[in-house]
Design a protein that fits this description.
Number of helices: 2
Strand order of the largest sheet: 1-2
Order of helices and strands: EEHH
Strand content: 5-15%
Largest sheet: 2 strands, antiparallel
């Protein structure tokens, strides 16, 4: 590219060269893992399949965990009755106190 300019009665000219090189693929030094980014995932179907399976497993685990956390429906319990003689709790359906034998 040539740039021409003038001013103050003088003409100036400059030539600028710009050389652009395509960045060569870099290989990681030994002992380092290769870089992994989103384009690697999108451009390689096996990686995409592994990512989808992993996502489905996470969703399944979360769904099962939430399902277990739901409280079981509890039926209201009848209040516990106590023996008027000794004060021990009475067994439901038993007309006698299991501790003192008093009729409830």
């Amino acid at each position: 590219m040539t740039i021409d300019g003038s001013g103050g009665g003088k003409t100036h000219s400059a030539t600028v060269s710009l050389i652009m090189n395509e960045k060569a693929k870099e290989t990681p030094p030994q002992g380092e893992a290769p870089k992994f980014d989103l384009s690697t995932l999108v451009n390689n179907p096996p990686y995409m399949l592994i990512a989808v399976i992993a996502l489905l497993i996470v969703i399944l685990i979360v769904t099962l965990a939430r399902r277990r956390k739901k409280p079981a429906s509890q039926q209201p319990q009848a209040p516990t009755k106590y023996c008027p003689n000794c004060g021990e709790p009475l067994t439901p359906g038993n007309p006698l106190c299991s501790s003192c034998g008093q009729r409830a």
